[in-house]
Write a structure and sequence with these properties.
single chain, alpha/beta, Rossmann fold, DNA polymerase, domain 1, six-stranded parallel β-sheet, two-stranded antiparallel sheet, 10 helices, 8 strands, elongated
Length: about 230
């Protein structure tokens, strides 16, 4: 590992941290609501659902209509998102350089996300990031029993097996769940201010720092300049 690195294991959240998936997710959500006969939610409500599995939001919204409505909404969303919606995601400016710099410096770099693994791999390949990652940790299906803390633990085991561990690790993300997963795995948590989580949401989990830009994130991670 390069001595200048602050941590030799860096685990990134995906949605909101590396990419902005809003357009594709919002379109799928609106179609799901229409399919079960409910009015489309406002954009700000949709933004609050991005990060955790979308099935959790549908269960909360449509649970009173019964399990068939929840299943219909989720199937409609998946049809929309998996067939074009995911490809509308844009890469946050500067994040490619952050990841490549960490990779080139010798860090173990991985993505931990609640987005289903298959579509996660597609998105990372689309943005030419997969080859610079040592691992991708995501549930096999949208309603799998995985949680962010469990995925971080899985990534950490893989990192240690790969020889990392001299300087411990850090989770980088935009939601409270990311910071909580870091804490539960005895890792540092660094928040990013450009994602979907509110500032208060991040701060309640006491992150080590909150980066306001990818350039500042580079400094926090100790990887030098991009």
């Amino acid at each position: 590992m390069v001595e200048d690195l602050r941590w030799d294991v860096v685990l990134f959240d995906l949605d909101g941290t590396i990419i902005d998936p809003f357009d594709g997710i919002a379109d799928g959500v609106r179609k799901a609501f229409a399919e079960v006969g409910e009015p489309a939610p406002a954009d700000e409500r949709i933004r609050g659902w991005i990060g955790p599995p979308i099935g959790e939001a549908f269960a909360a919204e449509f649970g009173h209509l019964g399990p068939d409505a929840v299943a219909t909404a989720l199937a409609t969303f998946r049809q929309s998102y998996d067939n074009g919606g995911a490809q509308s995601a844009t890469l946050h400016s500067g994040m490619r350089e952050v990841i490549l710099s960490l990779h080139d410096a010798g860090a173990y770099v991985a993505v931990t996300t609640m987005k289903p693994r298959l579509i996660t791999e597609v998105i990372l390949e689309q943005h030419d990031l997969r080859a610079s990652l040592d691992g991708v940790f995501a549930p096999a299906a949208d309603q799998a029993s995985s949680n962010k803390s469990a995925l971080v633990a899985e990534a950490l085991i893989d990192a240690r097996a790969a020889g990392a561990g001299e300087k411990s690790g850090v989770v980088v993300g935009d939601r409270a769940d990311d910071m909580r997963a870091a804490r539960l795995n005895d890792l540092a948590g660094v928040g990013v201010a450009w994602g979907f989580g509110e500032s208060a949401e991040l701060l309640q989990e006491r992150p080590l720092e909150v980066a306001t830009s990818p350039l500042q994130l580079v400094t926090i991670l100790g990887v030098g300049k991009v």
